[in-house]
Amino acid sequence: MNQANIPELERIASQVRRDIVRMVHAVNSGHPGGSLGCTDFFVALYFHIMDRKEGFDMDGLNEDIFFLSNGHISPVWYSILARAGYFEVSELSTFRKLDSRLQGHPATEEGLPGIRIASGSLGQGLSVACGAAQAKKLNGENNLVFALMGDGELEEGQVWEAAMYAAHHKIDNLIATVDYNGQQIDGPTDEVMSLGDLKAKWEAFGWHVIESNGNDMDSIVKSLEHAKSLTGKAKPILNLMSTEMGYGVDFMVGTHKWHGVAPNDEQLADALAQLPETLGDY
Amino acid sequence: MTKFSYTEKQDTRSGFGAGLAELGRTNPDVVALCADLVGSLKMQEFIKENPERFFQVGIAEANMMGLAAGLTIGGKIPFTGTFANFSTGRVYDQIRQSIAYSEKNVKICASHAGLTLGEDGATHQILEDVGMMKMLPNMTVINPCDYNQTKAATIAIAEHHGPVYLRFGRPKVPIFTPADQKFEIGKALKLIEGTDVTIFATGHLVWEAIEAEAVLAEAGISAEVINIHTIKPLDVEAVLESAAKTGCVVTAEEHQMNGGLGDSIAQTLALNNPTPLEMVAVNDSFGESGTPEELMTKYGIDAKNIVEAAKRVIARK
To answer: Per the database record, which ranges form the Transketolase-like pyrimidine-binding domain (chain B) (predicted)?
Structure first.
């Protein structure tokens, strides 16, 4: 793998964060908090870590593929996909509007390049990722499958069915990341439903667990490179990634209040003033 | 005398197992998953011959549906196997989002459907599965009638791109369809020509309809019997043509009246050509423990009930 160009990745991240707040502001709906918190992860993944082919095909043969299980952070994924060339950046302006391919939650029905499964109803993505990883093994491919889940999402039982399955079947071409921001809609996870010792839980389920800082580009790049080096060793890999919800916009940081609320006009101006326009707004 | 005869009875789930085994030999993309019911689903032959293409999921049906959706990404054609109850109600949201809405080429193969599961009782006797599955956009719903037709349907759905719900059962029932009959999805099969009443039946009730026709014939009533093995997409043309000819209709199925085949046919007729109709189905009730025969009698879904329904509906013409 090439050496990561951290300043360049940070420039992309700034633009992606601008896209996110502009998209949710434009339709006065959507989920900026988790999107902003996961921006650095997405940029590192799509612009450095993943071995991607040009264009898009649903089967994703002979390339690394990614599944977003916590589909409500669609704004960050849409921005990333557009900035990575899957579709025109101008299409971001259709987010959540009638007849758009950019549905409120990711969907395949409208044929948006880059999306392989619908997500939104939580807890399903890890199962899908496990299946896709096993298909790659059957096909004799060496490529990897990546997945992202929210931490609140771990309250869904299906996640643990998949966790048990992946270890039993030694799915070692899979790197799943948990966005560990400690927030969910009704409040901090500690108050809504304690997640306990997540590292110990995933290890007890038979996963190789690494911990990372998802809001430092250099750190998340190194963590994901390390995760890749752990593949192929008969264990699935879990990246427990600490982030702050709303990271990058000072008044949105660290609170569940911006989970699913859009900024008003003044708040948008305030946010954009904190985020340099590096690649040109859509 | 029934117009069809048989020399052997066999369970439809064994037809599924035989079809899956044949697919294992002919289609390298076919993979199978099971949630701890390999023996009940008769999947052993496929597993023995293709161990690398079988995935034991354990008792985790929600995960199984997601896995199946994921396996399609990479070109596989997954067949999931568990009881009908755990193939639908337990995993409705997983099927809805990850399979139907996502247009994934998953074949949901569901055994032990309906009352004829028998002694295990109502927890396992799902009578709502067809309704749940047919409501989902993109979903094809198939309920074959005997061993041969279930085997043929299993093979046919591998060639069809898109999600399919294939429903079959536990008890041994007469084998009366030809072993070499090709299965055409969405194409109703006219088994017996008649003029006074049409009986549209699906699944295990097709044989009951054949027996009912013989009884009606002795009473001088000419019944047409049509096997609706594909409930969705419904063969609307065949339904309308026969209903127009006979002028009245009986539907017969091992399912709730709400949401089943009768419901689909009633809708079709009401929208196109309102026709007197009687439904032989379970009337808004759960089942209970008992033998299949006892349950079909108690819940009113056997040949005798079809005969009575036919006489009632003819009187309404």
So the answer is: 10-175
